[in-house]
Write a structure and sequence with these properties.
The protein is α+β, with helices and mostly antiparallel strands and 81 residues long. It has three helices and four strands. A four-stranded mixed β-sheet has the order 2-1-3-4.
Length: 81
């Protein structure tokens, strides 16, 4: 499984990344999380057709956009993938 958090590097993006890493660690997937920010993050968001950040991408599919989800929503998204 490939998990990415995309964003501009803002505080919301960093917070989502930290939460995803925490959940992934609990599920034994910590090494599968990638944080893509700045120009690279923006370019990837454009490629996916997303114009709001942060973005949670799981296996190339957009799972969440534009908000910081709670821990349970992140767990659910990772388990479902």
């Amino acid at each position: 499984m490939r998990v990415q958090v995309l964003g501009t590097g803002c505080l919301k993006c960093k917070k989502m990344y930290e939460m995803v890493v925490s959940v992934a660690r609990d599920l034994g997937m910590k090494d599968m999380v990638e944080y893509i920010t700045g120009d690279d993050g923006i370019q990837k968001m454009i490629e996916l057709g997303v114009m709001s950040s942060p973005v949670l991408v799981i296996d190339g599919k957009v799972a969440m956009v534009g908000f910081i989800p709670d821990i349970e929503k992140i767990k659910g998204a990772l388990r479902k993938a």
